[in-house]
Design brief:
This protein is mainly beta. It contains five helices and 31 strands.
Length: 476
């Protein structure tokens, strides 16, 4: 199987949270009057492209990269790369999860290795507010599948029949004389433990299936409660009245010229302001990323249509295998505040002007002529207190310069009040030169960020040498 044909599926969320009809009532679920949509996706290959990115749209067709197009989350576990992220909201709107394929092609792993001896785990993040995320963990989903060789393209949907999530993904394994990808499922309530995996979808003979995504339909639309789209050689549409029940083949999208040789990674979105859906499909064969396909009824394959030329825009980065969340007004406000397009800066030392602040193995120091991502930070509004700043790493988003015992580390924001205070500073006129800047600690206001023996420390400043050590230029 060629690398292009590897389908790394994007995930929607528990669709019951997005629509009317069968959907459960959640206190902050999105409604027609709410403002927009959040897409989580990856953007390409390599250690940087295979991470978590966010984009926003007000109308569901024209997208803007959040955070200036920078990554939103970085995997520090498993292969240290992720593809195919699924964004899941809990039924009561109090928790969110991102689940993704643990896969980093070109980062020490080839396609052949990933197919035949890849990670059996998924990467999972959790959040209570959609903006502050836990550190990632690995969820081993394919280890219990005899001779299961990988775990790709996870998705999850809330199942009211069992009061938990159906988590499903593709695993390559030999069975009944064919070694191929099949879709397996297990049940979970917390994405930390699962039931024994079972075969969920298998196509005849040697035909593989890797991508599939389910959407729940509102009452009165189509003839089924659930519709799923799968990449299985075609973009096959099926319907069912039960997530784990019998599914009926409703046709495919070859009639509008879209087959599995051209597109993959189906991603559903319901327009909040009208009775219409879009099925986003990744144009992997041409390398162009997502294309929206519109329909008033996902169960009626004859109603799908291609968009008019110029009617959509995917933004500055390529959007690949992701999922879309219909945002509430509160969620949108939090997301925009967290991933504003804050400029990327470096911190230049005043008295060693060929040196810049950088992190190395999460230690923080000043080094000579450093221009790479380790020396780039976003000066965000302070995590604690007004009129303050915090320094967020560009290549480890969610990690900040934080003092502990007066030493500095690049540390993951755990969401605590103590972390926020330790990672917050007041930017004042430079102690050695008012045209530069110094940074006074928020919770130790008699101490400043300074370097000593090239290591960053939090110290009182009482001498001319210390004033020079505590003075920096914020530069691009």
């Amino acid at each position: 199987m060629s690398a292009l044909r590897v389908r790394l599926s994007a995930i929607f969320l528990a669709a019951c949270l997005l629509f009317t009809g069968h959907a459960l009532t959640a206190p902050d679920r999105a409604a027609a009057a709410d403002p927009g949509y959040l897409m989580t996706h990856f953007i390409g290959e390599g250690a940087t492209g295979q991470q978590i990115y966010f984009s926003h749209s007000s109308d569901g067709l024209n997208w803007t990269d959040l955070g200036g197009g920078g990554m939103a989350l970085r995997s520090t576990v498993g292969t240290r790369g992720v593809r195919d992220p699924a964004l899941v909201r809990s039924p009561d709107g109090s928790r969110y999860w991102i689940i993704a394929t643990d896969l980093c092609i070109g980062c020490g792993q080839t396609w052949s290795q990933a197919i035949n001896d890849g990670s059996r785990s998924l990467v999972v993040w959790e959040s209570a507010d959609l903006v502050t995320w836990s550190q990632p963990w690995l969820l081993n989903v394919a280890g219990a599948i005899p001779d299961g060789r990988n775990a790709w393209a996870p998705e999850a949907i809330w199942n009211p029949a069992t009061n938990d999530y159906v988590l499903y993904w593709a695993t390559n394994k030999p069975l009944d004389g064919a070694t191929k990808h099949r879709v397996y499922y297990a049940r979970t309530s917390d994405f930390r433990s699962i039931t024994t995996p079972q075969v969920y979808i298998e196509r005849p003979g040697t035909q593989e299936i890797i991508d599939t995504q389910i959407v729940e339909m509102p009452a009165g639309v189509g003839g089924f409660r659930y519709v799923r789209a799968s990449g299985d050689g075609q973009i096959t549409i099926e319907g069912s009245d039960s997530i784990l029940g019998t599914w009926t083949n409703l046709g495919n999208l070859s009639g509008i010229g879209l087959t599995g040789s051209q597109v993959e990674g189906p991603m559903w979105m319901k327009f909040r302001d009208r009775g219409e859906w879009t099925l986003y499909l990744d144009q992997y064969a041409s390398g162009r990323g997502y294309l929206p396909v519109l329909t008033p009824d996902p169960s009626a394959t004859g109603t799908y249509r291609l968009p008019a030329s110029g009617s959509y825009s995917m933004g500055g980065t390529k959007k690949r295998h992701g999922s879309i969340l219909n945002l509430t007004a509160a969620e949108e406000a939090r997301v925009h505040a967290r991933w504003a397009g804050t400029p990327v800066n470096r911190l230049q030392s005043y008295n060693f002007q060929d040196r810049y602040v950088r992190h190395a193995d999460f230690d923080v120091r000043i080094d000579q002529n450093i221009s790479g991502p380790d020396a780039r930070f976003r000066l965000r509004p302070g995590l604690a207190g007004s009129g303050t700043v915090s320094f967020e790493s560009v290549n480890f988003p969610g990690y900040f310069l934080r003092h502990a015992n007066h030493d500095f580390r690049l540390a993951h924001n755990d969401g605590t009040t103590r972390f926020a205070a330790d990672a917050t500073f007041r930017q004042v006129a430079g102690l050695a030169d008012s045209g530069w800047s110094s940074f006074r600690s928020y919770n130790f206001p008699d101490r400043y960020i300074r370097h000593y023996a090239y290591e960053l420390r939090l110290d009182p400043v009482t001498t001319a040498t210390a004033r020079g050590d505590a003075t920096f230029r914020v530069t691009s």
